[in-house]
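Re: that chain you flagged

S.,

Sorry for the slow reply, it's been a week of failed gels. I finally had a moment to sit down with the sequence you sent. For the record, here it is as I used it:
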Amino acid sequence: MPNITEMTPTEFRELLHTLVNEELFKSRERLAVLLTKDSSREELDAEFFHFHGDYVDFAFWLEQYEEDPLEGLTPETPLAKKLRRQREYILANRKTTLKERNFRRMGLYLNSDPMPEKKITELPLDEYRVLLRSLVTQELFPVRERFVALLSQNPSDQELDLAFRELYVAYELLEVAFEDYHYDPDEGLELRPEFAEELEQRIADHEAGEAEMFTLEEVAKKFGVKLNIYPIYADSSVMEQCSAFIV
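Prediction finished late last night. Pasting the structure tokens below so you have them in one place:
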């Protein structure tokens, strides 16, 4: 995908249509409905799993955008004043770099980024519901509604640029809301039988001297990644895949 700042006007419009129609906004509606009821922890967990996954998917489109959303705005306009206040809050409360946030969304922590002490899966139910309510009422969601309305009006490129800046800052506010919490959607899940069987075979190959093996901790150390999982083993082919993937 081209860098957002390098997109043609047509590519940019297509991206905006994609962003406002992402699954995040549907899962947010479902989660918001559950929060109006006496929903069980299991029901909330199941829908939050989708909400978080859809947030990660939404972030994929924006994770390489590093421009200052205030740059070039007329300082005294209402939008510029609003975005400046929000950016000041974001920068004052953000604890991670762009690279650290990108790794967090993959379930990894760089050595420079300590894992938050608060685990979403371990929050008491009342505290959990408070967090979920704060997430589904984030600025991103009303901003998206206004953006959808704007896109139906054949807006100018300038109008789209301003609306995208507002959407991006609102997305940053949602990022900050997640900063103090750890969430691993795969935590507690069992390995699929076929994967467990393949894993046992690779370990057997290693014990028979037919494969060179590395602990995943060794892989993490090599690439400066911190993992929050139990020790398992990876062979040299995994090392090669990691080398191609982690930069």
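What I noticed first: The chain has two domains: 4-182, 193-245.

Talk soon,
D.
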